[in-house]
Amino acid sequence: xxxxxxxxxxxxQQFEFNHVVGSHTMFGLVRHYERFMRQYxxxxxxxxxxxxxxxxxxxxxxxxxxxxxxxxxLEGSQDELPGWLHSRVSELVAALADSEENRWQTVxxxxxxxxxxxxxxxxxxxWLNQVDEEATDLIRRxxxxxxxxxxxxxxxxxxxxxxxxxWRDWLEGQNLPNDVPEAVMLLFSHxxxxxxxxxxxxxxxxxxxxxxxxxxxxxxGVEVPT
Length: 226
Description:
Layout: H1 4-7, H2 9-13, E1 20-21, E2 24-25, H3 26-36, H4 46-74, H5 83-96, H6 100-125, H7 128-142, H8 147-156, H9 158-171, H10 182-192
C-alpha cells in the first residue's frame, strides 16, 4: 500500500479513507472513540469486549427511539407535528377556501410527501424493530412463569438478558451512559455501522442453537477473546 501511489495514483485513491462528517474526519472520530474507551484500549478481555458491545447497543437504542418518534410524527400525531408540517396545514386551510381542485391537489401533495418520508424512514431504520423484538423476547423468557423457560434463560442466556434489560432501560430514559460524546455516536452512524443488515444473513444460515436463535443480542464464539 505504501508504494501503490507511485505505481498508480488513480487506483491508490480508491483505498484512501478521508471521509468528513460535519467538522470531523473519520480518523478524528476514531480518536474520540479511543479516548472515551481508553480504559479498555489495551485490554483483550471479555469485560472490555462487552463494553464495546454495550456502547454500540446504546447507539442502536437511541436511533430506535428517534425512529419511533419520527414515525409517530409522520403517521399523524397532531401533538408532535413539526413546524414545517404546521405551515403546510395552514396552506391547506387556505387552499380549502379557493376551490375543490386546489383543495385536492394540496391534499394529494401532502399525502405523497408523508408517504415518501415514511418509506424512506422505514427503509433506513425499520430493522431496529428486530432488535427491540429480540430484547422483548429475552425479557419474556427471563420472566417466564414456566420454570424450565426461565431457568434456561438464567443459565444459558444470562448475558443476553442483561443486555435486553439495559436496552429497555435506555428506551425509557433510565441508566443512560454518562457523557457519551456526539463524536462517538457519529462514528457508529457513519463509520462502523453496516446500514444494510441483510448483508449479515450468514448468521441466519447458521444452526439456530449456535447463537441461541438471536441475531443482535449475542456474541458469536469467533468474537469472544481468547
